[in-house]
Each structure stands twice: as structure tokens, then as C-alpha cells.
Sequence to fold (686 residues):
Amino acid sequence: MQNRWSDEEADGLSDLELLVYQSRLLGADPGLVLWGGGNTSLKVTEADFRGSPISVMRIKASGSDMKSCSTGDFPALRLDDILPLFERESMSDEEMVAYLGRCMLDPRSPRPSIETLLHAFLPHKSIVHSHADAVIALTNNASASRVLEDAFQGAVGVVEYLRPGFALAKRVGEAARGNPELMGVVLSNHGLITWGDTPRAAYDSHIELVARAEEYVRKGLRGASTSGGRARRALDDDERRRVAARIAPTLRGLVGSSSRMVLRYDDSPAVLEFVDSARGKELSAIGPATPDHVIRTKGTPLWAGVDASDAPASIQAKLRAAADDYVAGYTRYYEAHSEGSVPMLDPYPRIILVPGLGMWSAGRDAHSARVSGEMYRHTIEIIGSAEGIGGYASISPRDVFDAEYWPLELYKLTLAPPEKELERHIALVTGSAHGIGQAIAVRLAAEGAHVVVTDLDQAACQAVADELNQAHGDGRAIGLRMDVTDEDEVKAAFEQVCLAYGGLDILVSNAGIAPVGALDQLSLKDWQRAMDINATGHFLVARQAVTIMREQGLGGSLVFVGTKNVPSPGKDFGAYSASKAAEVQMAKVLAIENGEYGIRCNIVNPDAIFQGSALWSDEVREQRAEAHGIPVDGLEEFYRKRNLLQASITAEDVAESVLFLAGPRSSKTTGAMLPVDGGVRDAFPR
Ligand code: ZN
Fold:
């Protein structure tokens, strides 16, 4: 653990800026603080709303992330109002939250950390609290008291495990006030608190104590493998990923039966070492690293004991059995501790460990799946360290339950914004680097979907994906080169999707071309190319999508971008109209074959979309203008006037219809064809 404090950088900062600087230093080290964990505070004098100087504590807001925090993330609370609470015997969580709400200097500030009293009851100016891995390895230990004494030699006080709240804050306050020589307090199965007269002093003590814990762990490990050595032969990288992609949709179905999850796959060396170790299963069942982890990882992961070299069907059967066992075990745990006081949360795991393959983490989106996965990677690290110095131990199932069902945490969940229409969904849009496909990708992402952008040009796909990630958060889109006519490339791309997100809910099959020419003039090559892209391409992507959707068992939606030319073909568009008719006929058969799996299949028929479209090349424009006997620059106007609404049709108009057919609002519609053409009488579906 490195001390990263720089006097040069800290020079000239105000109190509040120093607090931000200190917090960001702590947040930048994942060995100390993960995603919203930990907190810091500073007691200062500020002016109240009348301009009178008063003592306040600036403390990190609940849920804000230290590594990216700013001054707005530290609400100020009046200390004169808080300090008398130390004399109380007890205080409920609800009363505490309501009380603290009234102590805020600015009522519009974000809500202060639920560990606020822990900071307030300590007499020191600056307080730092983290869930440092190395310290947790010492406290989550079968020999915790010996190990803590050996490592810290009396420099810290130790407070027995209690859920955060008034009682824990009071105990910590008492421990510190009675022993002024202490550098900090270790919270059993939770973390470390240090203090100082300045942000630098509290930070220095923190780093020093964590470094001592790390050194102690290092000596204990002595380079030995602590999880019993490798138990099985590892697959090579390609084989492992192929099998992982194959079974991911089954897993996604198993953990998503009450609400869909996005799955993140992790086969990093540390994870593989753990799942392949002789004692991995036993160690993973002991319990969480801290109560903070429970919200993200549940108390224990699902351990699916399969042989990765078995046939996929046998692996899938074993996964189903393991998931059933997990749900039954979770239900027993809930029933043993809830006494009917709260409804059961979903009983599905957030972490799935599979020997030979690695780990999947589940979340409502790619970001939360990533957070859960990172938290469990740190748990693996902590377990390994603890095993070297006495043996990993955790809190009791009762304490796990109290952490998981803590009303304050459950309340936080209710503050999350309402879910969007396609949240938790994964969509793949072909031909989406430009034009209609791009507009569809943008629209689906705006409604919460994770979007896979595919096209022929990898860089262009990535550019669209980057924009979506910029707008909606990291991990929300990926860009993949995929030639829809290349069977191997299509298979490989869908494998990538399963590795990135765990499966697929929506396919928008859009990629297409529009060759022109009278049939008696058309070369076989041009005819064949139209068939390859406009017919076979749709078949290849639909086949992969349907296979994944059936394995998930969560239903699904396929939307095909057809054309007005299917019901109303045009002169010189023979190859186009015939190949698109094949696409549409196939789409109808897909609807027939997949209804029993809850997979819907519908078609949109656009007409005359000029904006950003690759279909309307200069050649096509000239040719169509000639066919209609009008100048090229009059073409768009000609098409506009041709439809009943006399409307120009845009890519966004098509995207809106695709959104409707892709999402739950059209849940009872399959096999349908929806024109987006401003009304063309000849093209009315019938
Ligand atoms: Zn904490």
C-alpha cells in the first residue's frame, strides 16, 4: 500500500478541497475502497445561512463514489445538533435518518452517509473509513484476535461486528475516547477507521495501518497456494471461451426468471485459480467479506460443479440443478430469518462460479454486473489472504440477512429511477454503423437497452458504440464487425455477445443492399449478391439469435427491416424485391416456429428513406429519377408527394416503429408487417 499524498498537489487547497483530494486518493486504490464504499469526513467551521460561524462536519454523501467525488458530494451537518446523541442509549435507524436530515446546513444537499454518526462521535477533525482488503483478511479470520494483535501490536482498537448504525457508532466513539493513544479502530468483518488533526494525518495513519496488514498477510502467504492447489486440468483459452459463450444464455435464463439480468464473464487468472482449486467450493460457501458486499454479491455465490469438458447439454442440465439448489437454499435462509416481516427479495445469485470456466456476475445493467464482479474478485483475494494466516471466516447467516434486508439499504433501492422500457435487455442491430440501423441503435439505447452495433466496418461500429457509451454509461454498447453473409463470422459475433452480456433479447435484422437493373440485364453476380445479403444474411443472424433466445427461455423479439417493395414491387428492382420478399417470408415462418417459446417476429416496411442511407447511392438516385421521368434533385420531393400523408420518411421514424415492435408494448403481436411509408396504397399489408 503506497502513500500517494503529494504536498505539492495539496498546497493551497481549502478545507473542503483537501477533503475531496484525500477522498480521491483513497478511492483511486481498489485495495482500499470499491464503488461507493468507504467514507471520509472533516470537521470545520463554516458560515450558516445567516452568516454566523458554526461547527459543521462535511461527510461523504450516501452512495457517492470516492474516486470521482467532488465538493458537492460532501453535505455539511451541524455538529451542535449531532453531538448530544452520544449520550443516548439507543436510536433506531429510521429515527437516526430523520434526525440527521434535520441537521443539514443546506436541506438540498445529498443525503449523508449512513455511517455519519461513526464519524461524528469521534473527537478528531479528519476521519477516514475504508473496507481495505488486507484489513478484512485479518478480521474475517478464524484467529482474528491473535492475528490483529500480531499485525497491529496494540495500535488499533477492535470493535466486534455490528451492523452500521447508532450502536456501532457509539461503541467506536467509546473505544476512541477512552484510548487517546490509538491510531484507529478496526471494525470486525467490516473495515478500518483512522483519524488525525488534518486530512493528511488521518490518511497517513490509514495507509500505514493497511501497509502493516498487507505485510502481515504477505508473510503468512509465503508464496504458497492457499486454496488447496489446482484441482483440474484447465481448458485452453479459446476452448474455455467457446464453452462459456455456449452456456451463458442458459445461466442468464436461470438467474433472470423474475427480472432479466445482464451477465459479465470473467476468466482472469485469479478467478480461474480460485474456481479450479480443490477448496474453492468450500471456501466460497463460508460467507461475504463485509455487509457492504452482501447487497452486490448476496451472501454466497452459486457454485456450479460441472466439468467444462463435458457436452454442453450435460453442462446445462447440471447448471439447472445447481441453480434450483441455490434458490431452495436461499428460500430456507429467508424463511429462517425473516419471520415474515419483509417480502423475499429475488432468490437468484449475483455471482456464479463454474470450475474450468470462471465467474459470471449478474446485474440490472453491465455496470452493476461489473461492480458485483469486482467485489467478488476482491472477496477471492481476501479469502486467499485470510487462508494464509489462520483461515477465512465470515459473519453469521443471521447477520448476512440483517445486512441484505436492512431497511436503509432497501430504501436506497427505491430511490433508483424507474426502469426504462428496454432496461435489462440486450439488442443486436445489424448494419447499424450508418443510416436506419444507426438510428435504431440510438433509439433502443435511449430506452435502456444494451446495444451491439454490427456492420462491415469495425471502426465505424466502434464509433457508434462509443457515442452510446458516452451518452448512457460505460458498457452499454459494443461495436463488432460482422459480415451477415459469412456463417463463421456471424457465429463468432454472437459468441462475443454472449461473453459480453450473457445472451440476447432483441435482434433487429437490418443490413441490406439495393441493386438496380432490369432482370433481363442483371448479372448473376448482382442477383446472387442481393440474395446473399438480403435473404441469406437475415437467415444466418436469425438462426443464431433464435438459438440463444430458446436457451435463455426468456422469450425474445426479432424485428426485420423489410421494404415497401415487398407488397408493392417496382420496375428495375427485381433482385431487391425478390430477395427482400424472401427475407419477409422467412420472418413469417420464424414467427410460426418460435411462438411457443415466446419469441415474437415482426417486420417494418420503410419506403424512401434518403437521410444517411447506403441504399440511395448516386447510381440508384439517377436510375430511379430516370425511371420516374424526373430530375435527380426532385426525387425526394417526388417520393414525399407519392404517399398519402405527403410526408418525408426519416430513419428516426423507422426506429420508432422498431422500438415498438422490439419492446413489451407490442407483446401480443407477432408475424405482423408495419409500413413506415407515409401511406402507400399499393403497399397496404393484406
Ligand atoms: Zn463501512
Remarks:
- The chain has 25 helices and 18 strands.
